[in-house]
Design a protein that fits this description.
Blueprint: H1 37-46, E1 51-53, E2 60-62, H2 64-70, H3 91-94, E3 99-102, E4 125-129, H4 134-146, E5 152-159, E6 164-165, E7 170-171, H5 172-182, E8 185-191, H6 198-213, E9 217-221, H7 228-237, E10 247-248, H8 256-266, E11 269-275, H9 288-293, E12 308-313, H10 319-323
Parallel strand pairs: 4-5, 4-9, 5-8, 9-10
Antiparallel strand pairs: 1-2, 3-8, 6-7, 11-12
Pfam family, one: DUF5522
Catalytic activity: diphthine-[translation elongation factor 2] + NH4(+) + ATP = diphthamide-[translation elongation factor 2] + AMP + diphosphate + H(+)
Domain Diphthamide synthase: 128-311
């Protein structure tokens, strides 16, 4: 084998996608990537091809290049749709790429009645990573009470196959129901679990959001309470060290009794949606007395260590009371 640089070089096909290309001197072997449609799609796009064979089903799948040649979304929820699934009717069930699942009446697109003076910059959006649970809800409530609710948006990731939000074990339909009731724009990001990088999927979701609303991103917001290693990861991947966004943590180190006070003030009932420990049953109401009693069994009162997760049933009270605005 000659010395590297003299007639050969390593090619990492996992880094190829529709935005790049496979070197013209290289003929990639799709069978070498038999278990990963993401890699196959990248190679096919690099070759300028409009179809590739799905490694699991053997079916022929249109590439992003094929869809771009069509010039518009066909409405079928195609795997590689480059148009944010604009014409898909049942988005929660069918989208395979990030797309806006609900658009708030106050988050108008740049072409839809925007009153911003010509030439003036549009206000940026604070985008909350939203899981449907109590911590996400309390973070949203905190943001709404401290600023303009029209400057908020939600982003939710979910499994592309099951349509389930990880850890919470809630269907993405729940997030849409919450966003609709609270009238906050929501973008959904289906995760395929292949070689796609998480940050690439998030970037595409944020692009779908800014394209739809015509507004830039001001910051990314998280409902983390006190786990430093989680915050460190977010800073490394999404913050100044990674994607370059400003990150916010409104509930960071807020005492649990204060969080419980605010939850009770909202009138929103929360229940356990998933549990990893004995003694915490799915369906259990998340209330003060029960929560405070968990510490005797070594369980974090808010399940911050992953002991349990919850869903906030915001639709049972008015939007105004839930968010603490206009009352």
């Amino acid at each position: 084998v000659p010395i590297k640089g003299r007639g050969w070089d390593r090619v990492d096909f996992s880094e190829n996608n529709c935005g790049g290309s496979v070197p013209s001197c290289v003929v990639a072997d799709l069978e070498d990537c038999a278990d990963d449609f993401v890699v196959r799609h990248g190679i096919a796009c690099g070759r300028g091809e409009t179809m590739y064979e799905d490694p699991e089903t053997g079916y022929q799948v249109f590439t992003e290049l094929a869809h771009k040649k069509r010039g518009k979304c066909c409405g079928s929820g195609c795997r590689h749709c480059p148009y944010d699934h604009a014409n898909v009717k049942d988005k929660t069930s069918r989208i395979q790429q990030p797309a806006v699942l609900y658009e708030a009446t106050s988050t108008r697109s740049k072409d839809d009645g925007d009153n911003t003076p010509a030439g003036a910059p549009r206000a940026g959006l604070k985008v909350l990573f939203f899981s449907t649970g109590k911590d996400s809800f309390l973070t949203l409530r905190s943001l709404a009470k401290s600023g303009d609710a029209s400057d908020l948006a939600l982003i939710t990731t979910f499994d592309a196959s099951t349509r389930t939000i990880a850890h919470q074990e809630t269907h993405v339909d729940v997030a849409v129901r919450q966003a609709s009731h609270l009238d906050v724009t929501l973008v959904g990001v289906p995760l395929h679990g292949k070689s796609e990088k998480y940050t690439d999927r998030i970037a595409r979701g944020l692009k779908a959001l800014t394209t739809r609303t015509g507004r830039p991103i001001d910051s990314l917001v998280f409902g983390d309470l006190h786990l430093q290693h989680i915050r460190d990861w977010r800073e490394a991947e999404l913050g100044s060290e990674g994607m370059g966004f400003k990150l916010e943590y409104p509930l960071w180190n807020v005492p649990y009794h204060e969080l419980m006070d605010d939850l009770e003030a909202s009138g929103v009932h929360c229940r356990v949606s998933a549990s990893t420990v004995e003694g915490v049953a799915v369906g259990q109401s998340f209330v003060r007395e029960w929560s405070e009693g968990l510490s005797a069994d070594g369980i974090d009162c808010f399940g911050e260590n992953g002991e349990f997760h919850s869903v906030a049933e915001v639709w049972k009270v008015s939007r105004e009371r839930a968010l603490g605005v206009g009352i």
